[in-house]
Automatic annotation (TrEMBL), chains A, B:
Organism: Dyadobacter luteus
Signal peptide, first to last residue: none
CDD domains for this protein: CAP_ED (cd00038)
Coiled-coil parts of chain: none
InterPro entries documented for this protein: cNMP-bd_dom, cNMP-bd_dom_sf, RmlC-like_jellyroll
Domain Cyclic nucleotide-binding: 10-113
Record's protein name: Crp/Fnr family transcriptional regulator
PROSITE patterns recorded: CNMP_BINDING_3
Amino acid sequence: MNAFLRYLNSFTPLTGDVQEAILRITIRREVKAGELLFDQGNICKEFHYLESGIARVFYYKDGKEVTAWFASQGQIASAIDSLFSGKPSFYNIQLTEDSILWSLQFDKIEPVFEQFPVVERLGRLMITHNYLLLDERMKLFAFCSAEERYEKLLLQIPDIAQRTKLGYIASYLGISQEHLSRIRSTYKK
Amino acid sequence: MNAFLRYLNSFTPLTGDVQEAILRITIRREVKAGELLFDQGNICKEFHYLESGIARVFYYKDGKEVTAWFASQGQIASAIDSLFSGKPSFYNIQLTEDSILWSLQFDKIEPVFEQFPVVERLGRLMITHNYLLLDERMKLFAFCSAEERYEKLLLQIPDIAQRTKLGYIASYLGISQEHLSRIRSTYKK
DNA sequence: ATACGATTTTGATAATTATCAAAGGACGTA
DNA sequence: TACGTCCTTTGATAATTATCAAAATCGTAT
């Protein structure tokens, strides 16, 4: 069983015919570092599961790129706001490493929902999972200083600092690159 | 049809038997201002729909109360993090006005999911809706200054300043009460 | 109307963090 | 090895916002 199906099955057990129906609307892709997976202003119609690699989801604020979040192995690298709402997104998504992803064509999922009610359940559980991730991030901003947020990020992706630029991380944390640099210098004992 | 059923039907049409099944696990309540609906540390097992009134969802940070969000008429006033995860919440919920709410016993919903697949769909769409609300709030923090966030809040609940304390609003915006006070004084032309 | 308690505003100062500029480092290529 | 480019760190200053204290305002009961 491939990584994508293992991911789906971790939410709720799927029978063979359901898995086949899902794979029929899913494409496995190998993508090079630097590739833009999605551009703001478009409607996101693909559900991208990251088998390996790192994606940076970002938007523009006052002409500058601001990282909204990093998706790493085993996570979703889509403009979820648009995917779920059907409205244009203002996120951009770039793969900052060579990555392998499974792209489910979300605009073809409705018949699958209708044929297999268990897929409704799967959808519900997956969105719930992502809701909780977003809530975590919200709490992180509410509760934690930039230092603490940086430490939490390191727990999630320990080698993030080696895998992407400092400026990307700083904007994710909501602080300037210089400030992050200073935090790191005091912080390494 | 009551407000709660209208709310549910706005996501996906429900037949009479589904509505009955849902109402069987739902209680309508009138609650006085000031009442604590939920205490942190517990597992939230009720899905509260606010027919009228305002709820303040808050947590403690360094001994001080911080507002996570305000739920007003037509919204959900539950510790969603716990409701969806089954883990203890660290939110508290207080009704800051006399309110009417519909409390669905979420721990009794599983049989309803099994009997009526459309309820899985309903759940999926409702969570999706709440995901988008949370994403909006995230973007609000990322994009907007305290001033702009205050203005957006006023768009959502125009009379919020009359209906709850300034300190509650300030902590929601992530700024000190004094700072909000100063913003308001420059801002009223 | 008056007084009380709660809430909000104002003032002064301190802490935090951004910004701008320049200096270091790392790394690939000639 | 030397050079160029990109990225990170350091330094100095400015802007933003918090904090603490006191004054003003509001709401309500007397």
